[in-house]
Amino acid sequence: MAGGEGALKPKLAVWKFASCDGCQLSLLDLEDDLLALAGAVELADFREATSGVVEGPYDLSLVEGSITTPHDAERIREVRSSSKALVTIGACATAGGVQALRNFADVDEFVRAVYASPQFISTLSTSTPIADHVRVDFELRGCPINKRQLLEVVTAFLHGRRPGIPSTSVCTECKRRGVVCVTVAHGTPCLGPVTHAGCGALCPAFDRGCFGCFGPMETPNTASLVSLLRSQGLDDRDVQRVFGTFNANADAFREAAGRG
Amino acid sequence: MAERRTIRTDYLARVEGEGAMRVELADGQVEHVELRIFEPPRFFEALLRGRSFLEAPDITARICGICPVAYQTSAVNALESLCGVEVSEPIRILRRLLYCGEWIESHALHVYMLHAPDFLGYAGAVELARDAPQAVERGLALKKTGNEVMSLVGGREIHPINVRVGGFYRTPARSELRALVEPLERAREAALDTVRWTAGFDFPAHTVGCTLVALSRGDTYAIEDGRVRSDAGLDIAAAEYDEWFEEEHVERSNALHSRLRSGDTYLCGPLARYTLNRESLSPLAQEAARDAGLDELCRDPFRSIVVRSVELVYACDEALRLIDAYEEPDAPFVTVEPVAGTGHGVSEAPRGLLYHRYRLDADGTILDAKIVPPTSQNQLAIEDDLRAVVADNARLDDDELRSLCEQTIRNYDPCISCATHFLDLEVVRR
């Protein structure tokens, strides 16, 4: 898709659904590469950054956020139909985000807990990932995503190749970085063995157990990890809490939390 | 037959989140103004119930990718005050340093990428960079330095992982912080250039009359804690917040609207901080403010870009002072035992006062939570200001008026994701 001087530049669009804006901010956080990226693509629709809007179709759409309203369930279909490639960025778009905790609760009760006039609020009873609604070409994990990985994904799609994003666990990143295992050395509960790589073993490097921002790795052995967590003193409620955060609705984490 | 005009913008760009605005005019008179926020609710206050109090900083960070440290700080302030914990001086220094990083990152983003394009007539910073690459690169370098501070102290710039109730998971060595000195010195120069740059923009003559509310401290410019004060004489602790402020739920918005219980509309954020606390700024930041022509108080929302620039100077200056003052603590955190009861915490997010309240049971389970973000508090003031701006400028054609309305909203750096939400601008003239 990349072209020389005078060729049409590929059109990049960024879309927001229910989210904190942090994953699309990662694009602006590419400070040293942002203007080069903006020179290589046409930022056709990126409302957080520009009021200039170019109509579709788009060569690449980056989608942040989960589907939580009837209106957004329609809107994501329009985004899909106007996009050649669609990549989800972050835990909300890929797993439903922390707001998917409503999936295990009574959403009407949630509305009443926050709003004085529940009749003004339009919401679905679930928060679901984009792939539950439309075809997704690639899912980039993380809460938030890693901005270097984002640059790799955008570059790969613009050149028509698969992104080089490892789907191993955080454990492999600890080993590569030479970080001492917090579980082995200190008995600290850590989700690293079942969590998708991508953060660079951030928490263990800060003497903290991984808490699963990047969601489940490709083939996680959560049963084995749950046994270990229990031997470290976690009870049922603790296990449900550690797996029930930003990727609570991802299959492997939902099951590990005892939520079927 | 009245002459009625309709102007609308369906999606307000260069703000964080999703919202709409609607203005109706008849015969040039403003009939109705509303800022509608329709970003879908995520129910944080509900999903916090049943969680451990130790999870609050990580979970509430996810309310906002632009100001996660504000959420983490107000949360730990509320929980530590309830549990009777005082953190050590080095921990306080690191928290303030981390928060300075967030101010630098967020203010640089807003000044250069979201707000300056309005004054200079560009759609965004990328478009601006074609004509003024040096200015945009200066902004990006400033933003990068803020992110470097957050990464070093917090682990990463978006949703830092190092903040915990009672302190940090890991505290840096003095030598690690030294790596920030040179970038921050450069950033401070860039921030001074930023003040000179924004001070030269054209500003319409315009002021707002509402009450100004900000945290204040006797010793320093309040960031990570303080008493809630107003220019009308209010001076209360965080625990008294609910006695003086209330929220209401209106149909047009998924964000609750705050007002003083007296009925008065108020404004928080840079204008309020500067007006109440200018004398606590560092000498360098005060000098920059004077050179930029700022008076002792600033009630002009258009000039908020200059005030943010002055706060950029201060945040860089203060970060350097904190790095110099930092001594490594004996332990990175104190273990906090939960206490049944209600805790209150406040801090100054880049866009203004952020209030948290938690009620815990004896084992530390959160029974209920209340979070009042700055954009909720500013919503009514923004609407009042839009009404005034439209009334003063009804002679403008639709495109000009729409641009001015958008700029008026961006003057407040609304964070609609925080307030829950998204802007879609619609002006109806009849």
Average pLDDT reading of chain B: 92
The helix-strand sequence of chain B is EEEHHHHHHEEHHEEEHEEEHHHEEEHHHE
The outline of chain A comes out as globular
Q: Roughly how many Å apart are the termini of chain B?
A: 9 Å
Helix content of chain A: 25-40%
Question: How many structural units, i.e. domains of chain B?
Answer: 1
How does the major sheet of chain A shape up? 5 strands, parallel
CATH topological fold name of the largest domain in chain A: Rossmann fold
Output the strand order for the largest sheet of chain A.
Answer: 2-1-3-4-5
Output the radius of gyration of chain B.
21 Å
Task: Return the CATH class of chain B.
Answer: Mainly Alpha
Total domain count of chain A:
2
What's the total count of β strands of chain A?
5
Please give the largest β-sheet of chain B. 4 strands, antiparallel
CATH homologous superfamily name of chain B?
Cytochrome-c3 Hydrogenase, chain B
CATH topology of chain B: Cytochrome-c3 Hydrogenase, chain B
CATH architecture of the largest domain in chain A: 3-Layer(aba) Sandwich
Estimated share of beta-strand residues of chain A = 5-15%
Number of helices of chain A: 12
Descriptive key words:
heterodimer; A: 260 residues; alpha/beta; Rossmann fold; 2 domains; five-stranded parallel β-sheet; 12 helices; 10% strand; disordered N terminus; B: 430 residues; alpha+beta; Cytochrome-c3 Hydrogenase, chain B; four-stranded antiparallel β-sheet; four-stranded mixed β-sheet; 15 helices; 15 strands; 19% strand; globular
